[in-house]
Amino acid sequence: MPKLTIDTIAVEVPEGTNVLEAARSIGITIPHFCWHPALGKAGACRACAVKMLDGPIKGIQMSCMLPAQDGMVVSTTDQEAVDMRRAVIEWLMINHPHDCPVCDEGGECQLQDFTIAGGHGIRRYDGLKRTYNNQYLGEYIEHEMNRCIQCYRCVRFYQEYAGGTDFGAMGRSGMVYFGRQQDGDLESPFSGNLVDICPTGVFTDKTARFRARYWDYDMAPSVCPGCSLGCSTVPMARYRELLKVTARRNDAVNGWFICDRGRFSNAAVNAPDRPRQARVDGEAVSMDAALDSLQERLTNFLELNGAAALAIVGSPRMAQEAAIMAAKLRDLIGAETLCYSGDTPHFAATVEAVALLNRNNTASQKDVRQADVVAILECDLLIEAPMMALAVRQAYRNGAKVFVVHNKCLKETSRQLYDSAAVASLTDVPFAEARNPVVICGMNRQAINSIQAMALSGVKLAFILNGPNAFGTAMLAREQGAVTLPDALARGAIKGVIALEADLSSELPP
Ligand code: FES
């Protein structure tokens, strides 16, 4: 562990840490554009200059490119380093639009922040600026190439991290262009991350454009409801309308990124026909009136049919708090039936899968990213849980071997992210040679059966479940004796249901 001194503060960091990261670890921010924790260094922007006062390396250095070493004495405030950084910012701003007060990236622009922090406020260059034509990149991402400072973060993410092939860097020297060969939709299912990763606003969220300033948003940490992975997000709303969703860093789960499905699926939340008021027989009423009506009708129903005829029906979409309240409601009313699922085969497989998991054998997305052997069983990750596919790609980039068992589920798009070998069964996967093996399994009875023996073998397991809280509702279902709605209906006694966040099937009696 190298020990060094940064601005007179002694710091010890893990081997491989660069000087910029070492400074961050003690709360010192060195300006940077091209370096990103998830993408590493590129040495492209030259904004992170520091002065090495003593030790194995001396003079002005780019802190992101310099691994921390024993005995280094680093100054981020030395006048020579400050002047260098100020000069770099001034060069970057020569071609950049000077429209910060009205720019739609204002408030979330790293270039704006470091320009102001660096003290560059007066434009000395009065020549023509380099300008570009923008491209149409689809309905989600706006392109504004004149803001580009050539940090290469976008292309490093799109091609290297996310495996995209339709977007890249074109041109040479001072005329590098970041875009597609021609106008068209970005093809990567992770393209929305360009918005988060670009430090200047070349890529912005078109769906929220000019709707709010960064400081106008109501925002809070949240969890994506798009699939069962539960990636960390920050939904951002204004005037009670959900305008955009951004990724929230969570190293154990999604890292720095989210998929486009999670980012751009806010239409249902804002749908004008979404119920926003209590209704009785189709008529809008106050909440008090609705509750009175519910109590009266429920009392009548129970008197007429008895508690055995009533089912409380939830779904794997429910938050855990709501699922627990559904069980409490069942007990309060005395209803005999509680359901969290309308799909019997999936429910049975989910309950079995969840029963196999414990603290030691459960694989997080981070475990998958760090795996050296990954077996994928009965699921197409890009369709069912895109961020898990991105996690497998990171394992693959680090040298992991990827095996796909029962290959028939895999669509062509998944193959762009990682090369994989098709095998007939899990016994063909060389787990014994692996140090960090992971099996990712879809909800299929045959797959669950074949994975039973793995649960205690040291191999970590990740299940792609059927709903954002399928895991929680399956745990509760076992504890609370819940059944599926089709099973409850098959008993023939159900005459009424109370539905809570449930999609009721057409099997319901009229
Ligand atoms: Fe160091 Fe860009 S952050 S050169």
The CATH topology annotation of the domain at 354-465 reads as: Dimethylsulfoxide Reductase, domain 2
Name the poorly predicted regions: none
Within CATH, the superfamily of the domain at 354-465 carries the name Dimethylsulfoxide Reductase, domain 2
Estimate percent helicity.
25-40%
Which descriptor suits the 3D outline?
Answer: globular
Total strands = 24
What does this structure look like?
The chain is an alpha/beta fold and 510 residues long. Among the domains are: 3-94, Ubiquitin-like (UB roll); 221-274, N-terminal domain of TfIIb, CATH 2.20.25; 279-346 and 473-499, no CATH class; 354-465, Dimethylsulfoxide Reductase, domain 2 (3-Layer(aba) Sandwich), CATH 3.40.228. Helix content is 29%, strand content 18%. The protein is built from 17 helices and 24 strands. The strands form seven sheets. It has a five-stranded mixed β-sheet, sandwiched between helices. A hairpin with a 2-residue loop joins β1 and β2. α10 packs across α16 (470-480). The mean pLDDT is 93. The structure holds FE2/S2 (inorganic) cluster. FE2/S2 (inorganic) cluster binds at residues 32-35, 43-48, 62, 64.
Helix and strand arrangement:
Elements: E1 3-6, E2 9-12, H1 19-25, E3 49-54, E4 59-62, E5 73-75, H2 79-94, H3 110-118, E6 141-143, H4 153-161, E7 168-170, E8 177-179, H5 193-197, E9 203-205, E10 218-219, E11 222-223, E12 232-238, E13 241-247, H6 260-263, H7 267-270, E14 279-280, E15 283-284, H8 287-305, E16 310-313, H9 320-333, E17 337-341, H10 344-356, H11 365-369, E18 373-377, H12 381-384, H13 386-397, E19 401-405, H14 412-415, E20 421-423, E21 437-442, H15 445-451, E22 460-464, H16 470-480, E23 483-484, H17 485-490, E24 496-499
Parallel strand pairs: 1-5, 16-17, 16-24, 17-23, 18-19, 18-21, 19-20, 21-22
Antiparallel strand pairs: 1-2, 3-4, 3-5, 6-9, 7-8, 10-12, 11-12, 12-13, 14-15
Helix pairs in contact: 2-3, 9-16, 10-16
Bound molecules: FE2/S2 (inorganic) cluster.
Residues 32-35, 43-48, 62, 64 line the site of FE2/S2 (inorganic) cluster.
